[in-house]
């Protein structure tokens, strides 16, 4: 749909911006999980060259039909990045890396697949370059697994969170540096109400407390209500004070 295309373009633009590419020359970028080539379209518009990898033949067929300008490779990134050392000036990925956390086959080990991906990606990138991977983590444990394997592979950097206090606009970008430790970019919409800025993302297990055995949110519980009220306070909204009666169910009227 047009809405999906618009969102994909926005995230691609943000990912390329976080790469911090030089403005005086075109670069060769790797697009991990390129799909139908929507991210690659933006890369081409910016005057850069790209090679896309994806595990889905159907998505790559769509990219071929769309006559994208980049080269395409059918491959599972969990098996590694099959390119020569130092080949790319940067790497982006939109909504793809979190799928490596799934064990789709008995032989799949998420930590091993993630490490294989990050270690070979580190080798394929030129020294001083960056990789920016936009992802949708299911929880803080998945986020920690991904970042831990990236750091183990040699990357430095961290998570850039755009609009951290927004439910719909919140986006996670894992910004990784190769060879040198750069300054982590600031996320969009991170200014607090008093004018200060949030300098780092804070990941906790708060959201997992509100899930039952089937993985669904336990709505209307005291913890759920307190967390929702705190989120509204961070957004600058007027919220009633917490008391011992917060979240308490009223007795039925006869």
TrEMBL record:
Residue ranges of domain 18S rRNA (guanine(1575)-N(7))-methyltransferase Bud23 C-terminal in the record: 176-251
One GO biological process term: rRNA (guanine-N7)-methylation
Stored CDD domains: AdoMet_MTases (cd02440)
GO cellular component: cytoplasm; nucleolus
Residue ranges of the region described as Disordered: 221-254
Domain Methyltransferase type: 30-106
Bias kind Basic and acidic residues: ranges: 236-245
Keywords in alphabetical order: Cytoplasm, Methyltransferase, Nucleus, S-adenosyl-L-methionine, Transferase
Role, per record: S-adenosyl-L-methionine-dependent methyltransferase that specifically methylates the N(7) position of a guanine in 18S rRNA. Requires the methyltransferase adapter protein TRM112 for full rRNA methyltransferase activity. Involved in the pre-rRNA processing steps leading to small-subunit rRNA production independently of its RNA-modifying catalytic activity. Important for biogenesis end export of the 40S ribosomal subunit independent on its methyltransferase activity. Locus-specific steroid receptor coactivator.
Recorded family membership: Belongs to the class I-like SAM-binding methyltransferase superfamily. BUD23/WBSCR22 family.
Protein name: 18S rRNA (guanine-N(7))-methyltransferase
Organism: Anseranas semipalmata (Magpie goose)
Annotated gene: Bud23
């Amino acid at each position: 749909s047009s809405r999906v295309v618009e969102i994909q373009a926005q995230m691609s633009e943000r990912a390329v911006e976080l790469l911090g590419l030089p403005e005086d020359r075109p670069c060769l970028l790797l697009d991990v999980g390129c799909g139908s080539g929507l991210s690659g379209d933006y890369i081409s518009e910016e005057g850069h060259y790209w090679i896309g990898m994806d595990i889905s033949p159907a998505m790559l067929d769509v990219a071929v039909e769309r006559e994208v300008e980049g080269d395409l490779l059918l491959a599972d990134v969990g098996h590694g990045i099959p390119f020569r050392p130092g080949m790319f000036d940067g790497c982006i990925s939109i909504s793809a890396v979190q799928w490596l956390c799934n064990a789709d086959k008995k032989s799949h080990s998420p930590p091993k697949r993630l490490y294989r991906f990050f270690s070979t990606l580190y080798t394929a990138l030129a020294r001083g370059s960056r990789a920016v991977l936009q992802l949708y983590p299911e929880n803080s444990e998945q986020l920690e697994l991904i970042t831990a394997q990236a750091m183990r592979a040699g990357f430095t950097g961290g998570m850039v969170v755009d609009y951290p206090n927004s439910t719909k606009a919140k986006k996670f970008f894992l910004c990784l540096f190769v060879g040198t430790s750069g300054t982590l970019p600031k996320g969009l919409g991170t200014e607090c109400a008093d004018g200060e800025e949030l300098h780092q993302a804070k990941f906790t297990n708060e959201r997992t407390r509100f899930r039952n055995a089937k993985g669904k949110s336990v709505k209307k519980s005291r913890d759920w209500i307190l967390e929702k009220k705190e989120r509204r306070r961070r957004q600058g909204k007027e919220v009633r004070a917490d008391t011992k009666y917060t979240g308490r169910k009223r007795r039925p009227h006869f």
